[in-house]
Amino acid sequence: MKLDASVSAVITGGASGLGEATARALAAQGVKVALFDLNEEKGEAIARELGGVFCKVNVTSDADVDAAFARSRAAIGQERILVNCAGIGNAIKTASRSKDSGEIKHFPLDAFDRIIQINLVGTFRCIAKSAAGMLSLPGLDDGERGVIINTGSVAAQDGQIGQAAYSASKAGIAGMTLTIARDLSSEGVRINTILPGIFATPLMNAAPDNVKAALAASVPFPRRLGNPPEFASLALEMCRNGYFNGEVVRLDGSIRMAPR
């Protein structure tokens, strides 16, 4: 797909981190962008800077997502690109014993469900609704109507202690990628998933310097945290390269996460 002003894109989680970097990279190519996020102040500011539109969205809400797509399409047209970066994490063991009292507790199921609802169901909600919109578009020269890019995590394959919910949600995103590619193949819509390693996102940058240094040292090469523009670069290649479809790709400096 040629990236220019004839193309519109929706980026969930577009007000920070990997989503913001991807929105900036797409806008630099002339693509019209809509940012879906909960951070209204930052999202509005970035959208103004990029000449795009901001939509406040909770991806667990059908009503929010429907309203956001309606607003973005009215402002910049039907999107040909969807990049899903919205997501959260937590760290709770499946079952554990208190060091102080010896009390045994299990993973609270509402906390597990929240991660699944935001990361996995929320991603699929946006995929399904965006893909339905893409089907209304005329095909480009090669018949392509659109492209979808998801954000997984290396935790889908090497989840650490306490990441049962997060790993399950990201493994679900990876696992549904090929199936969705097959579902949409006859309509000219492609889908791929990126599994980023340890990236210098705002959440990671808030960690103490010694923690960040230790994490950077755990990456085989290059021995540093990933930079969000590197994620954006791969996302843009997935958009441009029409033969890139149904793939789950690690972007991690060859790291394999230890148990903790």
UniProtKB/TrEMBL annotation:
Tagged with keyword Transcription: no
Entry keywords, A to Z: Oxidoreductase
Gene3D superfamilies with a match to the protein in the record: NAD(P)-binding Rossmann-like Domain (3.40.50.720)
GO molecular function: oxidoreductase activity
Entry annotated with the keyword GTP-binding: no
Entry-linked InterPro entries: NAD(P)-bd_dom_sf, Sc_DH/Rdtase_CS, SDR_fam
SUPFAM superfamilies: NAD(P)-binding Rossmann-fold domains
PANTHER family on file: 17-BETA-HYDROXYSTEROID DEHYDROGENASE 14-RELATED (PTHR43658:SF8), SHORT-CHAIN DEHYDROGENASE/REDUCTASE (PTHR43658)
Similarity annotation: Belongs to the short-chain dehydrogenases/reductases (SDR) family.
Name of the protein this chain belongs to: SDR family NAD(P)-dependent oxidoreductase
Species of origin: Solimonas terrae
